[in-house]
Amino acid sequence: MMKGTVREQKRRRIDRAPVQQGATGGTTHASRRTKAAAREQKPPRRAYDVAAVERRWSEEWERSGAYRADLEHAPRPYYNLMMFPYPSAEGLHVGNMYSYVGSDIHGRWQAMNGYDVFEPIGFDAFGLHSENFAIKRGGHPRPMTAANIANFRSQLRRIGNRFDWSHEISTTDPAYYRWTQWIFVQLFKAGLVERKTGSVNWCPNDKTVLADEQVIAGRCERCEALVERRELAQWYFKITKYADRLLENLERLDWSERVKVTQRHWIGRSTGAEFGMAVEGHEDVAIRVFTTRPDTIYGVTFAVVAPEHPAVAAITAAERREAVEAYGADSRATRPVPGDERPISGVFTGAFAIHPLTGERLPIWVADYVLMEYGTGVIMAVPAHDERDFAFARAYGLPIRPVVAPDGGSEANPSGSAYTGVGTLIDSGAYTGMASESAKEAIIDELEARGTGSRAVTYHLRDWAISRQRYWGPPIPIIWCPQHDAVPVPEEQLPVLLPDVENYQPDGSGVSPLGRVQEFVNTTCPICGGPARRETDVSDNFLDSAWYFLRYPSHDDDREPWNPGMTRKWLPAKMYIGGAEHSVLHLLYVRFITMALHDLGYLDFEEPFPRFRANGTIVKDGAKISKSKGNYIVPDHYIERYGADVFRMYLVFMAPYEAGGDFRDSGLEGIRRFMDRTWQVVASRATGAPRSEPKGEARRAMHAAIQTVTDDVAGLKYNTAVAALMKYLNALEQRQEHVTRVELRTFLLLLAPFAPFMTEELWHRIGAAGSVHAQRWPQADESALRAETVTIVVQVNGRLRDRIIVPADTPEAEVTRRALEAPNAVRFIAGRAPRQVVYVPGRLVNVVLDG
Ligand code: ANZ
């Protein structure tokens, strides 16, 4: 999966990025580097040959098929899914690795809980990123992508995940994209695909259309170029038909809350009113307004129409025509896209609308901050209570009229800005004094009664622009016939292979490079056999990743996209973990595609991921990771130096997994020491440890560790789980030769999901049977958890007055404090200050009073 932040533009050699050792206050950057370089030459001395151990177990697991799930017969299927990577030239990003390690810990833990865990991985290898990289390097995306995949594969083999490589997929494989095209055809047949001409986001640098979700603050999420608007015919998926369901189902999904909030916001269901406004002198034209704030209707001081609105030409006054047309032409070329921060602009039409309640004349302006695609393309402007209207009114000297006073008495426009909250209505005719919420309803009622308006719902969500005028993607499986218009390619003719052409670069014409390949374009109509032309756009990369999870279990099925029996058994995925940056792209599309396939009868479930957790993001030494800062973290580098176990442990120990944290090289040293100590404690006791069960405090400590680690791992609180393991190791170290085999084994089992290599090696060294990863997760014994208690006798002047019960390890100060508070002791002390308090540990407290 592609992260929006990785950019090709300022590419550097990253494989030699210096590893800086911690933040050493005061040292210069240069000297730090030299020191780091010196240290780098000398890898830390380790208690064991880490590289050899990790290599040996990788090979052994591979050879024995330890992580190959028996998909057909598994009695307790557990599909543990992680977001497949985009195989970039830079190699595996630390963000990928963070996500994968956290997901793998979960998978390993569930395997030890007796589940048949299926943990597949694959490559999301089509798309702009690979293609742009190939253009830059003067190569071809096909071989370059293959090389990147090979590199990713070898990196992924080293991180210690229990991947089932026998189910690997790549979206660029014709055996895969045949079914991506099949999905397009199914949606097309179901009327969920539409070809529309409209104003679209156009990236002048990547020379292609972008979905709204791919535009961040007015810029292309890939290359950061300012996005333009263009009028183009595009293929759209009608995701808006599913807006309500996408929203409602969120309630029953067990997902990270912040992702749900982002989706809710993106779908952006708003309720409000839609009403007509008469235009003075144009009885034939009525413009309709959509507002979410009918309560502010008395504050309307002008109206704004989108430049493309069809009424503009009709209402514009003769003397304003030239200016309005010039503005329209200009805004078509450079129209700001959602989130843009360019200065506000507009032009007066010379026409006036009539306020629906007060009859007041309102000047009508044209401005490109009003979008044709949203609501009705016309707004009632309330500068006192809307930021954009406020900025516009300020820029063009239009009146600002506050009509909502914040509750609590402060002024409506205290700091010379719009007050956008709710409150109590002022200067609003009969509604003055009403609260915003009830005024909204009452005002809509009045608009309805007058026959000019009604309640209305709108969504922020737009249809998904699915076509790309590029090369590196699955060709859209449509044939254009002069007789039959758009005809889907018959299913038995899929895949429509992406032709292998030298010249794949986009030329900015708005036509895909495939349009230049005559052998590809010219075909015959599947209906009439007459000459026809193939569609030359390819589909959006996000369609590839909107169904990949369905393919893993049935990855080599060549008769169907997914096997129904297999799908019923393994899906929906039990746990999905990945980055929150995919909140509105991948994670929304995948829900939509699943719902659509469900409705078409291809799936039994409509939500692909009942449980999703977003891992946090990592910063390096307090700064955002970016290549220009040179603080890029190269996982290989650390794995070479410390081994995968240490790197894995450090990644999850660094911070709460779902929050993300600050990566510091110095932190790795701490984990390295912990691992070496673990080795020493276990390896040194490998043969001599007594076989007896631990007793007393040793037993309690062991079960306390089991309890804490279990709860923390279950809740993805890996950092505190590791901390508990550290605490437990201290306890074991202190007991030295008294440590039993049971304790050593328990410790290794608890550590196994985090440090799969070392625990496996030690498991064998202590002579335990099988793989540590195939063992059952230890269970905490409730009865062992209770600390032992003792009864303490409380005397006053030597006579028994009370008894208290305290945990055996309660410190003296605490015991005497509680003794002095024992009710019967209090009665006999009667407020006098004791001369002396004598404590006989574990037995009695004697309070000595004067006289
Ligand atoms: C008057 C008003 C007063 C508004 C106020 C807001 C605050 P959401 O909530 O995101 O759906 N709007 C409507 N159509 C628009 C368009 N095509 N282009 C740009 N803006 C448009 O936003 C709904 C609000 O966005 C609407 O409510 C409208 O401004 C504006 F104190 O109407 B409001």
Helices and strands in order:
Layout (H helix, E strand, L loop, with lengths): L28 H13 L8 H15 L12 E6 L11 H19 L3 E3 L3 E2 L4 H10 L3 H16 L12 E2 L3 H16 L3 E11 L4 E3 L4 E2 L2 E2 L7 E10 L5 H7 L4 E2 L1 H11 L2 E10 L2 E10 L10 E4 L5 H5 L5 H14 L11 E9 L6 E7 L10 E4 L5 H10 L7 E3 L16 E3 L10 H14 L3 E6 L5 E2 L1 E2 L9 E4 L3 E4 L29 H4 E3 L6 E4 L3 E2 L1 H4 L3 H4 L12 H7 L4 E5 L6 H14 L11 E5 L3 E2 L2 E2 L10 H8 L1 H10 L8 E2 L1 H20 L11 H19 L3 H18 L5 H11 L4 H10 L16 H4 L3 E8 L2 E9 L4 H9 L2 H7 L6 E5 L3 E5 L3
Parallel strand pairs: 1-2, 1-27, 3-4, 10-28, 13-15, 27-28, 29-31, 32-35
Antiparallel strand pairs: 5-6, 5-9, 7-8, 9-20, 11-12, 11-19, 13-16, 14-15, 17-18, 21-26, 22-23, 22-25, 24-25, 29-30, 32-33, 34-35
Bound molecules: ligand ANZ.
Ligand ANZ binds next to strand 12 and strand 16.
CA radius of gyration is 34 Å
Largest β-sheet summary: 5 strands, parallel
Helix content: 25-40%
Overall pLDDT, averaged? 90
Please give the order of strands in the largest beta sheet. 2-1-27-28-10
The count of strands amounts to 35
> Bound small molecules, which ones?
ligand ANZ
Could you tell me how far the N terminus lies from the C terminus, measured between alpha carbons in angstroms? Answer: 82 Å
Shape: globular
Low-confidence parts: 3-31
Number of helices: 27
Give the strand content: 15-25%
Structural class: alpha/beta
